[in-house]
Amino acid sequence: MSLLEVDDIEVRYGAIRALKGISFHVEEGEVVALLGANGAGKTTTQKTVSGMMRPSLGEIRFDGERIDGLPAHDLINLGICHVPEGRRVFPLMSVAENLEMGAFRFKRPDPQLLARCFEMFPRLKEREHQYAGTLSGGEQQMLAIARALMGKPRLLLLDEPSMGLAPLIVRQIFDIVREINSTGVTVLIVEQNAAQALGLANRGYVLETGEMVLSGTGKELLADDRIRAAYLGEEITT
Amino acid sequence: MKRRSVEAEARIENLKRFGACLAGGFVLALMVGTQEGTQQDFGYAFRQSVAMPRILIFLGIGVLLYLAITFGPRAKPYLTRPGLRPLGAGVLTVIISLTLLKWTDSPQINTGKFRPLADAAAPTQALDSLARLWFGSAFSQTAWLLLIIVTVLAAAGMIRRSAPLSYAAAILAGVLGIWAEYASAAVSKFLHYPSHATGGAVAMLGFFTIAVASLVSARSQAAEADTDGFIDRVLGWRPGLALVVLGFAVGLVGVFNAAWFSPGDRNATLSTTASMFGATNLNGFAQTYLDWLGFVLFFVTLVVAGVASYLRHRLLAYAAIVLGLVSTLLTLVVVHDFSALGGKQGFDGAQGAWDNLGTGAWMTCAALSLFAGAGYLVLKDLRIEAKGVRAGSDIVGSGTAGARGQVAAATMLVVIIAALFYPPTATEFWQTVLVSEIGIYVLLAIGLNVVVGWAGLLDLGFIAFYAIGSYTTAYFTGRLPVQPPDWLLLSPLACIPFAIAACLIAGVALGFPTLRLRGDYLAIVTLGFGEIIRVIANNANGFTNGPRGAFNIPAPQIHLGPIHLTWGDSALGFWYLLLVLIAIIVLLFNRLENSRLGRAWAAIREDEVAAQATGINTRNVKLLAFAIGASTSGVAGVFFASQVGSFTPENFVLNNSILVVAYVVFGGMGSLPGAMAGAAVLTWLPEFLKDQVPAEDRQMWIGALILVMMIFRPAGLIPARRRKAELSGLDRPSSAEATAVPAGEGM
Q: Which of A103, B415, B522, B724 has the fewest beta carbons under 10 Å from its own?
């Protein structure tokens, strides 16, 4: 049984069908990448999985239980933690307070976990009492990830963690994601940076205007001509 | 286009500034100008305001302002001298006392302000000569001359950094302060009128401020003022001492000078009261208190509190608290006893218990409570220190954060004590204002602060819940066309749970469908809700009695075993009831901000999507904010209905909702003390201005104040920590530790 099974879901924004029946699955311990251009429906897929949107058709199962239609705060209690697009830290809370908010589902934050997060992100330790709004973009992304980790995820949803960051920092972030995955957290990552994401992912899916057009292991997709043309900017000479 | 040179730019800037200053003077001329027009001549007021010699004065003010702005930087080294700002504050206080405040309430003196009083007092031979000199004999209005002399002396001491001059100024200012209060008291005694006027006391306070400023200047080694450092050193050093000094000043006047009992025109001080009751059968204890025990208690408590504060001694601090509170209670008992006896004996029309009292007893009570407060501060200080030591850090107790906490605690104590003991000394007018304006709106602001300040939901229909609370009270006391069953007819205070329930239901009913809206959309829906409630109240004749409203709502009563309390005649009783309600609600809400719920609200306010992503049930949490705010408003409604006795739908117009929002914003969104202070100041101000400016001008002056606030203190009177950070652009770190990290070091 897969950890997450998405079965033919359709999601609408009013009359517009953003997802036109897509299916995929994520196995326990995997890193799975969702790729696609702007407007392909990657973020919508993630929002639907994390409970911020409801599918109008189809089923989502987590651990074999149906979760489609459950609100976000219930899904967090199942261990689905979402790092939303654009980082979205609480700018007027200190770094420490942000991390505490991440553990909101528990009565009080786990001090060991907090120590682990600071170990993983030494930058955040340095800025523990600074307002999150004063951090640089990369630091904010790290904070957003650390905040999600404070909720003890089984499945971590990352929405474009590389957005707007310098290449060096993007590499750091992806290293951290790999590290998180190695501790047993399953990761579903949405990316436009296909090369980085596929280098990391066990498997990948490619979305185009709300439909699933390709799937395969990371290596297969990296080798696929269409992917190389669309996302890696290489010209195909035939 | 030719590029302008830097000098040309600067010149144009300068010209613009000059123009703006002149325009400011012009506007000021219009603001303080005569406002009367006639039906035939609409331009009359305008022409009067800008008439030739008059306008020149105001334009002159504009020019002065321009000069101050332009050459201010050059004068800066002088302006930052230690003590100069307190000196300014002191001089301003004295000027306010001499121009705006009443010096007597006696109807014999037109308006009761300083100037007419001085004109009347100076030629009065029968008046005490020392007091007469204050009001002016050789020169007209000696007080003004003396103020100028002491100001010049103090300023000279500061600018030339000469200690002897400063000491001289300090001594002179101290003498003048006592003189002012003495003259004011002499006048009250002469006029035989129990006076509630604050002029003399405020003048004394102002002169004492000047004295302290001069002392600071004389003692200070530094070339530049360091207000934060000063606060740290003085209040961080011995936090209770400030309260002891304040209590000493207030208590001295209370024990020796102010009237304790004033049936008719007697104005008897403590010792005179003692002799008044000497021949009567006043019970032994009260007589002893009046004879000598009162003085002894005051001085013993003073000494104990002073020593406890100075030595930071735990046992003495407890002693000060116990002594202070017990002697406050004893004082109240004695006041009750002698005023009741005085009423029974019919001294010059004395009416009974708690009647015909002067200010003395209340000032003494305030002083004794201040001493108890000083003891409390000492204990708090010791606790902070112990915590700091345990944490292995030596900065917690004595550092800025500790001192700030102590300043806040001391201020809070002073406010509480003033709320307890000032109202009985106020005139009936101000007592009414305290209850029906200040108190009720403070309660409403506390409620709205939960919704607007903490959860960040703009609610423009807040007054609707107030209306629901009022109508619930009217219903359960049987004053609406529809009657509850007989067994459910309640006394007003027993309506509180029902009003809370009604408001909770209304809050959820409004919130459930609308809370998915954000920002402006939510504001418009709530605005509509407020209007719907008002229109229903106005039109549902059979249920709400329509535009005639509800009337004859009984005043609250409490009958609990041996305790029988009834309200009704005096505003004062309602004030204490209101104080209890406010205290309960503040205690309940105090912990809310930093609770789990409070953090959830903060998260939603800052970023709703992120809040959702961290597992907050945003809908329920927002509903809870709505419901809590609404029920506070409902409690205010119950109080309002039973206090005024009758109300109509006109009491719940949109304007009131907007006012409450304005109070919360003015005070500091998201800060509980801020919201309360904002409501208090903005409800007090219009009433205060009644005496100062023509009625038509009041709103304009309030508008001017709000404008100035928006420019200089955009986060509000007492800003919340987060909101302050938001408006100062996040550049300040949230705690001192963070400064260890170099700023701007990005990744």
A: B415
Same domain, B396 and B441: no
Listed in sequence order, the residues at least 6 apart from A100 whose beta carbon sits closer than 8 Å to its beta carbon are A109, A150, B599
| Amino acid at the residue B548 | R
Cα separation of B515 and A73, whole Å? 17
| Residue B151 forms part of a structural domain | yes
**Residue spans of alpha helices (H) in B451-570:** 463-476, 496-514, 519-539, 541-544
Range of the domain at B643: 432-652
Identify whether residues B266 and B303 lie together within a single domain: yes
| B404 within some domain | yes
**Rounded Cα distance, B619 and B148, in Å:** 62
pLDDT the model gives residue B434: 93
Per-residue pLDDT tens for B656-705?
A: 999 999 999 999 988 999 999 999 999 999 998 887 887 777 888 888 89
Query: CB of B443 within 8 A of CB of B581?
Result: yes
- Contact flag B733-A83 (C-beta cutoff 8 Å): no
Q: Which residues from chain B sit within 8 angstroms of residue A102, using beta carbons? A: 614
Closest-CA distance of chain B to residue A200, Å: 23
How distant is the Cα of B742 from the closest Cα of chain A, in angstroms?
A: 10
CA atoms within 13 A on the CB side of B415: 12
CB interface of A with B, residues 118-147, below 8 Å: 123, 126-131, 133-134, 136, 138-139, 147
Partners of residue B735 in chain A, C-beta under 8 Å: 94, 129
Q: Which residues of A touch B615 (CB under 8 A)?
A: 72-73, 76-77, 104-105, 151
Which chain B positions have a beta carbon within 8 Å of A91's beta carbon?
Answer: 606-607, 730
H helices then E strands: how many in chain B? Answer: 31, 2
CATH of the domain at B154: 1.20.140
- Are residues B273 and B387 located together in one domain of the fold? yes
Partner-chain residue, chosen from B612, B616, B726, that has the shortest CB–CB distance to A52: B612
Stretches where chain B sits below pLDDT 70 are: 1-4, 34-39, 137-140, 193-196, 223-229, 231-236, 264-265, 349, 388-403, 722-747
Q: Give the span between the Cα atoms of B319 and B301, in whole angstroms.
A: 9
State the smallest CA–CA distance between residue A34 and chain B in angstroms: 19
Neighbouring CB atoms inside 10 A of B93's CB total 20
Structural domain count of chain B: 4
What distance in Å separates residue B600's CA from the closest CA in chain A?
Answer: 8
Span between the terminal Cα atoms of chain A, in Å: 42
> Do B306 and B377 share a structural domain?
yes
Q: Which of A73, A94, A138 sits opposite B734 (nearest CB)?
A: A94
Pick the residue of A97, A104, A126 with the most B CBs within 10 A to test the interface with B by mutation.
Answer: A104
Find out whether B708 and A103 touch, Cβ atoms under 8 Å. no
Cross-chain Cβ contact A76/B726 below 8 Å = no
Is B599 in the same domain as B454?
yes
Residue whose C-alpha is closest to residue B334's, from B359, B353, B350: B353
Question: Which residues are CB-contacts of A129 (< 8 A; sequence separation ≥ 6)?
Answer: A94, A95, A96, B733, B734, B735, B737, B738
In a domain, B500, yes or no: yes
What CATH architecture is A4-193+212-231? 3-Layer(aba) Sandwich (3.40)
In Å, how far is A40's CA from the nearest CA of chain B? 21
Residue B740, in any domain of the structure: no
Instruction: Number of A to B CB contacts under 8 A, please give it.
Output: 95
Sorted by where each begins, the domain ranges of chain A are 4-193+212-231
